[in-house]
Amino acid sequence: MTERNISADSPEKRAAGIAASRMVESGMVVGLGTGSTVAYTIKELGRRVREEGLEILGVVTSYQSEMLAIEAGIPLANLAQHPKLDIAIDGADQIDSKLYAIKGGGAAHTREKIVSASARHFLVVADESKTSIQLNKAVPVEVLPFAKTLVIKKIKELGGKPELRLGLRKDGPVITDNGNFVLDVNLGVINDPEGLALKLSSIPGVVEHGIFSNVDELYIGKKDGSVEIVRK
Ligand SMILES: O=C(CO)[C@H](O)[C@H](O)COP(=O)(O)O
């Protein structure tokens, strides 16, 4: 895992993040994803709330998106109050030509999956480097600490190479917002994302894996500031 920097400016990410924010209208309940690309969306939505009177409610996917949304001035709600969201916007670590995605680089994929599954429309924002014909990046798998040994054994039986994600400015494992560990699982090229998703979900102790098959629309930010839109 390389170090994540959510504050470095990126024109590609900004282009995608801001373009996606235009899909949001007053009256909507909006799922707010995690990461450096969707951070641009959250900041832009906050600007519209403060300066243009945009009336929305945000549902966050992590402490990171909660802090950003509060700082931006977006009023927040939760899934108990609003089980159906109008739209969810989030980043991805890799996304293929059929819009299967790998998420969880920020260890937030469990809540991101719940929030995106609650939305009528799920939009992913990414820069060009995230696109790939087929998925081949390591898949983040959130695991109950109690089940770590069993899950590692089962993943190896599937042919995966699991690596416990370690903290960068904390000794020992990364602890998710839900109090769990994350395994980054190298599985080579993923030819059947749906089949793999089912296999990973069936391992006792797996809380959630980072394969997403519910992306409706992808906004790809380019270096020249343009944005390509791909729909399912
Ligand atoms: O899944 C995620 C967090 O768990 C992020 O959305 C994903 O890692 C992309 O992040 P970034 O936009 O910073 O590249």
From TrEMBL:
One of its GO terms (molecular function) is ribose-5-phosphate isomerase activity. Its EC number is 5.3.1.6. Gene3D superfamilies: 3.30.70.260, 3.40.50.1360. It catalyses: aldehydo-D-ribose 5-phosphate = D-ribulose 5-phosphate. Pathway: Carbohydrate degradation; pentose phosphate pathway; D-ribose 5-phosphate from D-ribulose 5-phosphate (non-oxidative stage): step 1/1. One of its GO terms (biological process) is D-ribose metabolic process. SUPFAM superfamilies: D-ribose-5-phosphate isomerase (RpiA), lid domain, NagB/RpiA/CoA transferase-like. It comes from the Archaea. GO terms for cellular component: cytosol. Catalyzes the reversible conversion of ribose-5-phosphate to ribulose 5-phosphate. Belongs to the ribose 5-phosphate isomerase family. Homodimer. Homotetramer. PANTHER family: RIBOSE-5-PHOSPHATE ISOMERASE. This is Ribose-5-phosphate isomerase A. It comes from Methanosarcina barkeri 3. The gene is rpiA.
